[in-house]
């Protein structure tokens, strides 16, 4: 059995070492920033960004009935507060094309016999939904179903008599509408598809930031930074030379992710794989550029890792890769648009899940190229040789 003196000495040694380590941590700005800023950032992100109520959902209507009853149903959906102003759709092909290009999330199809069916007491409408985002599709479908279940079309007595329904002395009220949902591109609303289609974005963000954020700061810590700038090459050439090997490694990881998702889960891209690889390059360059800029700003490797972590966390959440973009409030949506992952998850899901072509992914690709050029100019400015 240990004597009281040995126990006191043991505790005293532990507390002395703990005091020394606490003193070191107190003077470590990286740890202090991590402890103070990370809880605040998580509170802001989880408090403002995480929502499960659709807001400003893009939707359309194929109204083949064009009657007061159908227009009132459209008005009820519009005034619910969840949707943007309605977009008129000309045909089923037009509706499918708008869903495929991500212009609409839902299309309400009202048949030409809607008024007659309402008079007979069996009104039915169809709701086409983009199933690539299962959570949003289910939520939107649920809200429209609630609206349809509360809707009751007024039917004049003469209309009910004409259709073989019993007439009444005053206006009648037909039963609630039956809503038939049809999910496009992900008929079973499998959540796995939603995350596998964004797998490439997660992989490449981690790889590119981890490699690029330590590149220049390592040169600075090793004392070779000024020597590197003194080489017979421009800062732009140095940057691109440092990024190219990581570009190759990123494509290897991308290939493993795509093939693994296909072999393990049977989830293969519906679109052109070569187009997907070509559209991935601007995202890789933009993310590597951000990592290189972080490395140019940081003075130590610990600072570079710290900044990268604080970029990755909001990037995953606010980009729409983990949480559907349609469920985010305004303000948060606009901030999410500043992250390259926001635009890459759009084009990757369009190609992988919807089989989109070059025209459908042109805008997000151009945005990624623009982000890369802006970051490249910032890095070039930061890398100008400085004394001290």
Question: What does this protein look like?
Answer:
- The chain is built from 17 helices and 7 strands.
- The chain starts with a helix and ends in a 6-residue tail after the last helix.
- α3 links the parallel β1 and β2.
- The protein has 2 domains: 59-184, 3-Layer(aba) Sandwich (abc type-2 transporter like fold); 191-382, no CATH class.
- By secondary structure, it is α/β, with parallel strands linked by helices.
- Helices cover 63% and strands 8% of the residues.
Determine the structural class based on helices, strands and strand pairing.
alpha/beta
How many structural domains in the coordinates? 2
Order of helices and strands: HHEHEHEHEHEHEEHHHHHHHHHH
Uncertain spans, ≥5 residues at pLDDT below 50? Answer: 155-172
């Amino acid at each position: 059995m240990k004597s009281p003196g040995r126990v006191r000495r043991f505790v005293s040694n532990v507390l002395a070492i703990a005091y020394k380590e606490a003193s070191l941590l107190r003077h470590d700005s990286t740890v202090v920033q991590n402890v103070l800023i990370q809880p605040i950032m998580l509170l802001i992100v989880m408090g403002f960004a995480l929502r499960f109520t659709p807001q400003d959902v893009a939707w359309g209507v194929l109204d083949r009935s064009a009657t007061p009853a159908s227009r009132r149903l459209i008005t009820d959906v519009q005034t619910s507060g969840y949707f943007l102003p309605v977009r008129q759709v000309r045909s089923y092909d037009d509706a499918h094309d708008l869903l495929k290009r991500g212009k609409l999330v839902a299309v309400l199809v009202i048949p030409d016999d809607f008024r007659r069916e309402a008079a007979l007491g069996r009104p039915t409408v169809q709701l086409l939904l983009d199933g690539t985002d299962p959570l949003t599709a289910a939520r939107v479908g649920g809200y429209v179903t609630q609206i349809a279940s509360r809707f009751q079309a007024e039917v004049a007595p003469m209309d009910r008599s004409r259709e073989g329904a019993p007439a009444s002395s005053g206006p009648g009220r037909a039963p609630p509408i039956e809503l038939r949902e049809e999910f496009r591109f992900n008929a079973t609303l499998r959540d796995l598809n939603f995350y596998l289609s964004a797998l490439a974005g997660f992989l490449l963000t981690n790889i590119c930031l981890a490699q690029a954020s330590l590149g220049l700061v390592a040169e600075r810590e090793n004392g070779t930074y000024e020597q590197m700038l003194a080489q017979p090459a421009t800062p732009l050439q140095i940057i691109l030379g440092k990024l190219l090997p990581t570009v190759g490694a990123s494509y290897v990881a991308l290939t493993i992710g795509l093939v693994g998702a296909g072999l393990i889960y049977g989830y293969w891209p519906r679109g052109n794989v070569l187009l997907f690889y070509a559209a991935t390059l601007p995202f890789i360059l933009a993310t590597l550029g951000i990592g290189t800029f972080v490395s140019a700003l940081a003075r130590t490797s610990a600072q570079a890792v710290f900044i990268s972590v604080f970029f990755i966390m909001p990037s995953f959440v606010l980009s729409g890769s983990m949480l559907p973009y349609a469920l985010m409030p305004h303000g948060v949506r606009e901030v999410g648009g500043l992250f390259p992952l926001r635009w890459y998850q759009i084009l990757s899901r369009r190609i992988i899940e919807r089989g989109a072509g070059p025209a459908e992914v042109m805008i997000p690709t151009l945005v990624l190229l623009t982000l890369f050029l802006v970051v490249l100019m910032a890095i070039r400015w930061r890398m100008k040789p400085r004394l001290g």
